[in-house]
Amino acid sequence: MSEEEIADDYPLPQQYVKEEEEMDEFVLYDEELETMCPEDLPKRVLTDYSIYNGDGFLTSLELLPMWSGIDPDVELYASGLVVEEESSDFQVAADEGSSSSGSKKAADQKQGMRMSLSQIREWVVELGPDMVFISLRTDIGWYNLSTPSQKYKSWANVVLRCAHVAAKTLQLICEKSRASKLSFGDIVKKLCADEPASKTFISNKVCFHFLFVYTHSMTSVSLLVAIVQSLFSDNSFLLIVAASYCREIPISSCSNSS
């Protein structure tokens, strides 16, 4: 996936400008990290965060693969306030983080250190009840994403919408006695019927839903399969269903939608 393919759903390019002095993440380095498996690295919270590329422009996590063990072919970095998990008193849910109160943010500022992280190696998404939890990994540790910075919020919201659309797709499939009874077109029409306040709402026109899923198809595939793996890790059939329902959609189908 390239920036050009998903550019229409994101704001215009914007340079990341740090508002405060940032410490380098390597102040957290410990020799023991060299022998740790990635899943065993220390876990922390990153709030008031921004994600940007090697040229310093704000960008999306979608550009990175979600598959563990695959080296990223694009360099992405993050900056923000790093808080130790055990000292954090806020919910680390990406959805809730975007609406956190100013008082909580002020309290977090006293607890954490503002840092610039090393290259992001991978990212994962987990779902709770009506919540999305996003984590990213560097060579130093894992960071659960909480509140995006005000300037990065528009980029973060697109990834959140992708995650909610994938979760809603799985829910619609599971509601049927047989997955084959629900076509992809049926799913898109049901998503289109959601209320504007819904986290999966894109437009009341079916075509725009087709275009959104088509444009973000690689992310949708990764998200849906990851969700199924976490819930039904022993059910290979559901993994196949998840992948088949998130396959790329011919762009011509949008011209026949209304």
Provide the structure class. alpha/beta
Number of helices: 8
Name the average pLDDT: 77
Widest sheet, order of strands: 1-4-3-2-7-6-5
- Principal-axes shape call: globular
Main beta sheet, described?
7 strands, mixed
The tally of structural domains comes to 2
The proportion of strand residues reads 15-25%
Number of separate strands? 7
Helix content: 25-40%
Mind telling me the C-alpha Rg? 19 Å
How would you characterize the overall build of this protein?
It is a single chain. With 258 residues, the protein is α/β, with parallel strands linked by helices. It is built from eight helices and seven strands. A seven-stranded mixed β-sheet has the order 1-4-3-2-7-6-5, sandwiched between helices.
Summarize the structure in short:
The chain has two domains: 3-151, no CATH class; 161-256.
